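idk why but the lab printer keeps eating my pages so im just putting this in chat instead. protein + pyridoxal-5'-phosphate:
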Amino acid sequence: MNEKIWLSSPHMGENEFKYVKEAFDTNWIAPLGPHVDGFERDLASYLGEGVHVAALSSGTAALHLALIILGVQAGDEVICQSMTFSASANPIAYQGAIPVFVDSEEDTWNMSPEFLKAAIQDRIVKGKKPKAIIVVHLYGMPAQMDKIMAIADKYEIPVVEDAAEALGSSYKGQKLGTFGAMSILSFNGNKIITTSGGGALVSKNEEWIRKSRFLATQARDAAPHYQHSQIGYNYRMSNICAGIGRGQMEVLPQRVEKRRSNYSFYKEAFAEIDAIQFADEPSADYYSNRWLSTILVESGGGMTREDIRLHLEKDNIETRPLWKPMHLQPIFADAPFYGDGTSERLFENGLCLPSGSNLTDENLHRVISELKSLYKSAKV
Ligand SMILES: *Cc1c(COP(=O)(O)O)cnc(C)c1O
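predcted complex ->
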């Protein structure tokens, strides 16, 4: 069996272990400590724009706290991009609120500004103004932030940016994760940088970030005994994980560079196969970290996305279909949806290729030669 080529696997730099060892040596083995503070500072200074950051146990936890802080309650409606990982939408359900799903547009595969506007107007007519808008930057590609922010501002609905896949991406020179009233990041094992598991909440509103730290540590009131006047959560990041994060922040620019070069490599290699299409940045305003390199497989080429996926799987190469839209998921079957089927088409034809920053040239060539031979065999 050939060596396994993963979709996106952890890639440690030089200093992660040093920071973890430092945590051991100083006995800061807890969900607080100097690395947690340091990692928050590293993230805030990387993102710029005067943001504050709370390091948390996961991106999902960060999104949950964002909705709580924005006052989302049972029965409220929250707009969410349909094409995404379920973690973008699950926290809406944690609050007993109702997700309203919005389709993608073709250029970025992210939330369609047109259907966002249609959804807001229709929900208002039906009697409820949505409490928040969750926009996602899929695979690192920036959503159309100018249009989305203008619509959100017009209707005075706060935007929560799900930048879990987009650390290192920017729109018009501004880092993703700094546009929304609040934003979330993820450091799960397959993301562009990882802390093994973890996330962060980002906002320019310092009070909200302070509140998220309070809620993430069981909402303890200021008293010598344990006193609580609000429901709390155990969502803080461990000082060990934050140590890994500090090391990963030192190599983030290189990770972005390598992932972008994977994308260019695939694009060049498949230039001769018309049936394989790439998702280019729509203009110079968009800068993607290329967390995952994705392709659209056109049926005219005689191959489906599944043919390719199964063929590569036989050679021990991991690929994955694009995210299945939330409005097609059994758990959200009853949720309202506004769209024209764009995300469904993308899901049917789209595939994520191996994209790790630790892929070797040999790995990349193996993916390419397997795919090319598949297309050659289809023609005979
Ligand atoms: C990974 C991911 C999350 C969740 O992050 P976790 O840290 O795994 O909880 C949320 N949204 C999107 C789009 C993601 O890809």
